[in-house]
Amino acid sequence: MTAPLPAGLPGIPAVLDALRPGRSRITAPALMRIAALNPSLGAFLTVSKGPARAANDARRRAGRTLGPFDGVPVVLKDNIDMVGFVTIAQSRQTPDRPTGRDTDLVARLRQAGAVIIGRTALHEFVRGGSGDDLPWPDARNPWNAVRTCGGSGSGSAVAGMVSLAAGSVTGRSVRYPAECRNLAGPKPTCGCIGRRGIFPPSFSLDAAGPIARAALDADPALSVLPGHDPGGPGALEHAGPDPLASLEDGGQLLGIHYAHGYGAASGASAEQAATAVPPEPDRMDAATWTILLAGALAAHRPTLPAQARDYCCLTRKRLSAGTFVTGEKRVQAMCLRRLNAKSTAGSIDTDAAVVRPAAVGVPVSVAVLDRCPCRRAHALTAPSNLTGQPALAVPEGVSAKGLPLQLAGRAGGEATPLRIARAHERITGWHDARPDLTDLEPT
Predict the structure, then answer these.
(1) Catalytically annotated residues
(2) Is 12-440 a domain of CATH 3.90.1300.10?
């Protein structure tokens, strides 16, 4: 019988407290859990036990610290470039050579002292799906192995093995995996976190964001990651010194809008529904897919025709769908995007958020996964990428009685959805629920 596994890792504030001088290290327990659980869960493509951890341990023994995340173990979705690692993006098509530079996101994590210990599974080039014909196994949902764990960041919410994962999102790739595993997944304002070095399916819609145990744990991550990246695509000119500078719990009553057209307002009163922001879901979904399909095809034009057999079948089908998008349709979609972003900016109060579901129900069985070129569940989360506004998936427990929720705020207003989510977590306590991994532990 092996020694008992260390308990599931605590939230980031507790980790930071544990890492104060004289307290215990947290990286070794994280690596123990990864070694024990990853053979069953398939969350990691690469685990790094070496230089970063050794340098961090030596620095801490000498009494030197780097920043607010000093010693905190973090993992990256494997479409994010990091010096010394091959960015696989879960594809046979990627070149077998290490990356020559860090993304802006990785550089900021390093500057803050984070210890990057692994790279997580995803759907191929964030456009494939579970069950693809690839040499890597699918990541498994720790709550129920026969159900999907979401995508495209299928391995990013890694069952409590680490306290923070960093990923990318074009339409749902942070929020949906978070909801499938009862975690918090904030998508910040598009452009406030540098995207250079993150392989894109869409230059226009992409953003980056963390997955954490709870909204409370997302706070420090969103204080470290944002910042202007002068060479990055879609970067904001002024990301600001701290997007969460105004984040205080306080006692102020914050406004809630219930979004029509997404099935979220069925339990709302007539008065609440009257304050809803009309989202025009069908038109927004059409614009999103027009932009995404055209952008994804453009990103793969250099390789897709000549090396089509190196892509899995579903990825190839979804990328090829971009050939049906005309220039005229893309221009129309970009115009609609601009109008929706302007409308959204004027319809959400500074201290308010829009409530939408993040999914249509519990995670579906892997046997009936969506194989459509356009993901059918995409419309629930994609509007926030289209408008660029921040949105946050909140832990909703594991019951089938309610819909997973997300909170969307004004562009640049990450603090408001996080404040509401923290209040929600204090009331419900659902973020404390964790899967029983006893059957997955080695004997």
Answers:
(1) 77, 152, 173
(2) yes
